[in-house]
């Protein structure tokens, strides 16, 4: 009897010791467990595009965590969590509401530790292709730097010899490569060539960023157009040559009164000869498009002079001279100039008729007047048609014609 009582007492004491040790241990784990390993999900406080939540009276949504409430700020309608010095968007969370460590550049995957915010972050862009593409990339970088409070650096590009780029640090090829191959750089890919990606508006606050892609959308930078136009001010040498070309064009037609100069860009050359462009949906406008566009300006304005910049001078003269004769108007051609001088002259014209391609796009964007674009580019159902969203590529007040 006494033996049985002793054994029972010993068992109880064992359980008592076990629970005495277990409870403090669980409390310790609960307190010290990294907060950023998971965020408690509540169905009614899922991140919304408009950043609203019924849990606050101010309209600012919150998320419940073990450390209390964290306020979500809304930047340009994108919800952003200020999380221990790092900004996390709704893409930082999975469908259940847990912090998505694998897809979050500000969270170390192994330790789940949120990296601190840096005060001297940089942004750059991978320069590729030719002048018009360069301009889209640099414009997107300038706008992203402004919105995210970053310093811009750039690798060698012919643009540095054409435009008076301001507040951008130019590095040589080796310096740029050495700088951007360090571990604290994150690559941001724009995705499709000409489809706007709004995620660039809010970049991680713990990494330098390399923009990769073509960024062919006015939505990346049009909200700060005066700044972009200022950045793309041609150097004095180019401006002087463009002014001379423009003046000679007007003098050639001997108009006594003030002329209305309408720039026309006609792209032929490579886009006609290389079958790649045809396969991918780069349809070039025919003479009927230019007839409609020229008719529009001839009827609307007086003393019109059409000034043509082209890499297909023979086709242009054979076709546009006929159109000019039918309309009873004047047409002149820019010849013997560099591409940047022709672009500057087109930008100085009163209005603009586009062809296709980024060179034509930027000449139109820098022009202060009305713009007519070829709505047949890209061809519907083509490869390029799947990579270019027309509403993102063409400005809404530009006039489309075929």
Structure commentary:
By secondary structure, the chain is an alpha/beta fold. The protein is built from twelve helices and 15 strands. The strands form three sheets. The protein has a six-stranded parallel sheet, sandwiched between helices. Helix 2 packs across helix 11, helix 5 crosses helix 10 and helix 8 packs across helix 9. It starts with a helix and ends with a strand. About 17% of the residues have low confidence.
How far the N terminus sits from the C terminus, by CA atoms, comes to 105 Å
In percent terms, what proportion of residues is strand? 15-25%
The assigned structural class equals alpha/beta
Strand order of the largest sheet: 12-11-10-13-14-15
**Overall outline:** elongated
Q: What percent of residues adopt helix (DSSP H or I)?
A: 25-40%
The arrangement of helices and strands along the chain is HEEEEEHEEHEEHHEHHHEHEHEHEHE
Number of DSSP helical runs: 12
Overall pLDDT? 78
Query: Any idea what the radius of gyration is?
Result: 30 Å
Q: Low-confidence runs (pLDDT<50, min 5 residues)?
A: 31-91, 93-101
Produce the secondary structure layout.
Elements lengths: L1 H31 L29 E4 L2 E8 L2 E6 L2 E4 L32 E4 L5 H18 L2 E4 L13 E3 L2 H8 L4 E5 L18 E5 L12 H7 L4 H17 L7 E7 L3 H4 L1 H6 L6 H14 L3 E7 L2 H15 L2 E4 L5 H10 L2 E3 L4 H9 L4 E4 L15 H4 L5 E3 L1
Parallel strand pairs: 5-6, 5-9, 6-7, 8-9, 10-11, 10-13, 11-12, 13-14, 14-15
Antiparallel strand pairs: 1-2, 2-3, 3-4
Helix pairs in contact: 2-11, 5-10, 8-9, 10-11
Report a brief summary of the structure.
It is built from twelve helices and 15 strands. The chain is of the alpha/beta class and 402 residues long.
């Amino acid at each position: 009897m006494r033996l049985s009582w002793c054994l029972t007492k010993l068992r109880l004491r064992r359980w008592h010791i076990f629970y005495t040790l277990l409870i403090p241990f669980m409390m310790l784990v609960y307190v010290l467990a990294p907060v950023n390993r998971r965020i408690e999900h509540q169905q009614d406080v899922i991140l919304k595009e408009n950043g609203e939540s019924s849990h606050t009276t101010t309209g600012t949504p919150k998320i419940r965590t073990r450390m209390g409430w964290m306020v979500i700020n809304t930047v340009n309608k994108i919800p952003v969590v200020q999380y221990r010095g790092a900004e996390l968007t709704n893409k930082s969370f999975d469908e259940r509401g847990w912090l998505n460590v694998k897809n979050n550049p500000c969270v170390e995957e192994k330790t789940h530790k949120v990296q601190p915010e840096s005060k001297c972050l940089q942004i750059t862009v991978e320069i590729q292709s030719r002048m018009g593409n360069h301009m889209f990339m640099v414009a997107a970088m300038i706008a992203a730097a402004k919105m995210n409070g970053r310093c811009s650096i750039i690798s060698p590009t012919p643009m540095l010899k054409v435009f008076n780029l301001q507040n951008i640090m130019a590095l040589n090829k080796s310096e740029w490569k050495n700088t951007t191959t360090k571990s604290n750089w994150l690559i941001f890919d724009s995705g499709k060539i000409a489809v706007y990606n709004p995620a660039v508006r809010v970049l991680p606050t713990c990494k330098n960023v390399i923009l990769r892609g073509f960024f062919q959308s006015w939505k990346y930078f049009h909200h700060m157009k005066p700044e972009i136009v200022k950045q793309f001010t041609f150097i004095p040498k180019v401006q002087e040559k463009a002014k001379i070309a423009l003046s000679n064009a007007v003098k050639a037609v001997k108009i006594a009164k003030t002329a209305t100069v309408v720039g026309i860009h006609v792209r032929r050359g490579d886009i006609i000869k290389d079958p790649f462009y045809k396969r991918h949906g780069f349809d070039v406008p025919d003479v009927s498009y230019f007839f409609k566009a020229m008719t529009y300006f001839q009827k609307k304005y007086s003393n019109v002079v059409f000034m043509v910049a082209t890499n297909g001078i023979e086709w242009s003269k054979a076709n546009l001279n006929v159109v000019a004769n039918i309309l009873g108007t004047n047409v002149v051609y820019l010849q013997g100039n560099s591409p940047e001088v022709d672009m500057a002259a087109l930008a100085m014209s009163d209005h603009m008729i586009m062809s296709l391609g980024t060179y034509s796009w930027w000449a139109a964007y820098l022009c202060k007047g009305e713009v007519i674009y070829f709505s047949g580019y890209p061809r519907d159902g083509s490869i390029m048609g799947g990579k270019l969203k027309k509403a993102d590529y063409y400005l809404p007040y530009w006039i489309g014609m075929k």
